[in-house]
Amino acid sequence: MKISYNWLKQFLQIDWEATKTGELLTDLGLEVEGIETKESIKGALKGIIVGEVLTCIQHPNADRLKVTTVDLGTDGIVQIVCGAPNVAVGQKVPVATIGTTLYDKQGEGFKIKKGKIRGEESFGMICAEDELGLGAGHDGIMVMDAALKPGIPVAAVFNIEVDEIFEIGLTPNRSDAMSHFGVARDLRAGLMQQDINLELISPSVSNFHVDERTLRFDVEVDKKEQALRYCGISITDVKIKASPKWIQNKIKAIGLTPKNNIVDITNYVLHELGQPLHAFDAQKIKGNKVLVKTLKEGTKFTTLDGVERVLSSEDIMICDADSTPLCIAGVFGGSGSGVTEQTTSIFLESAYFNAVSVRKTAKRHALNTDASFRFERGIDINLTKYALKRAALLIEEYAGGKMGSDISDFYPEKIEDYQVFFSYENAYRLIGQEIPKETIKKILASLEIKINSETEGGLGLTIPSYRTDVQREADIIEEILRVYGYNNIEFSHKLNTSISFDSNKDTKVESTIANQLTSLGFNETMANSLTKPAYSALSENINEAANVAMLNPLSNDLKVLRQSMLFSGLESVSYNINRKNNSLKFYEFGKTYHKFNEKYQEDKHLTLFLTGSRTSESWSNDDRIVDFFYVKGIVNNVLTRLGMTALKSSPTKQDIFSEGITLSLGKMKLVDLGVVKGSLLKEFGIKQNVLFADFNWGTILKLTGNKNIKVVDLPKFPAVKRDLALLLDSKIEFKELYNLAFQSEKILLKEVDLFDVYEGDKLPEGKKSYAVSFLIQDETKTLTDKQIDKVMQKLQQTFEKNLQAVLR
Q: CA neighbours within 13 Å on the CB side: how many for 655?
């Protein structure tokens, strides 16, 4: 949130440096993240002074140039070559002196230097309006008031405003500080604690009066919980034009673009007092009636930005007598009811809408406006009518408007201020230090918290309506502490603590594996568990109906809890690759979330992501790319470290892999690993291979805790392992080869394992190479070479016949 220091000084006449004020605001909990100097005109016309043209003759070497002498007051008389057709003796003109920087429309600066123009020396520049940023005129030089004295700074003549802008990181609970007046009010409390008592000056509305009751609007609120208070007034005879410079300067300083006097005034009051306002073209409100209501689901409505939106039956709408929607209440106006250059009368709205409803509507339509920002967090209901009068008076002064009706004020049930009992003993206990009672009373008074009753043990307090976040005794104590100053609380130089030992087995196992992976060059990542619903469509193994959806998502990209850790990991991989970090090794411990038949399930995972080179670039390291064999080796090392060695390999059922296997222990699946499909990588803009391993960490943790050891006899007869390197069509998957192998040899073949995959320019197009190992064993006798060769020949012939495989 941007706060103008000059604007702040309208409420509190403080003469501190901005940095000192920023430090106090930060101590009060309004953290100042930065201070920026802002000028109403870039450069603030520094070095531009008023000059008087004494002589003006034709340039001897140029028809379109004049040689002038200009009196600059205390800077003396200088010669300036000028090309403007309207320059003449006796004029008072703005002169950019030597060393002055002028800025173009793009903000690029150029410095005025002494020079020669067609042989004649020139010591400055006589400026046009657009060269100074004072207008768009460039037909000639700017001619100033003849009464001005030479040497006067031009900035003083045009009241150029130099401001300092505080960037405040406002926390959501501090809705009372969402305006310049609110910040000034808090600053005053901090100053009072330092015995600096300044008057808080609030804008006066005592001159408000109704001229003629010629344009009356009836206000009807369908449900009072939708709009707890709704005020409105009609203003006639308005003239739409540019707002005065002082208003433009104020709103431009905080980053807003001036539109016209009506819109600028509503924006000005919004940022001045924190009360959102909206102006409707009165002629576009049918039946002279304003309805606050909801409309049927699916109603279409075009907002001010020209976007047609589909309304929800829960959206609060401002409508006319025909129930035609005019505005999304508290969020955004409609394109058909806004103020235009043809507007001559307006209906001005100031309201207190339901905060929860406004927030849901804003998120539903992906709209984040200054109005919704304030309504969502809670505004001061007692400010509604006052802010309306303030804006109406400004419109009367700067748009020539006349009050066309009395103020309509729908406020059926007054909201009472919170009553809280404050205990001195509880305050001392929570703060850890005894603050004098008189100091506490002084702080409460500075915060406009009224003391209704007093006992030896505490105070009965009434909280002002604008402090929507202060409702409990603990909140009062926090308020006292922040104004008193956290830095003023003494602390002991002795630290007492108990040394605790983490005996959690699962944590120890995770720590062990994390250390192992880190030693192998991996970096740990921690992705957001919230993700995009669209990711569910990227894999058939993910059931969209099992998504756990957020009730009030922050955005469409954070709408559901993840069912797979792959996609958030690929986001990290893509982010790094796009920043020229092409060789990556990531690991993450996390959870996936599922909803099955109205029951929720969380599963623990450990995931690995590898891409690019195995090691960092170095003259002593070869540039070997991570491959299937390398990843499988890392996975086996992790499982071996956990005591899991008797692993069974089988084709994976996960469709996220182009090549993949599943490692199991008995019937329990431990890991899916492989090469991520190219079509998936394309979704994330990744153009290089990524290898992924997904450990079923919940199952692994259970197995590591299983102390029961099953003893079986060692095989009496040895097993034999043979390998085949097969050239296959790239469309063939490992599971096809796996199934064929066991169909071909059902008795002696015990295991089939894929340990390497190669695709590259050394192979024919559309081909890939599989390196497959086969474990052969007869449990009743020792196999002979002839028997082994027969099995291998049978397997080879099966692959050649069914898969057109070629032995490499």
A: 9
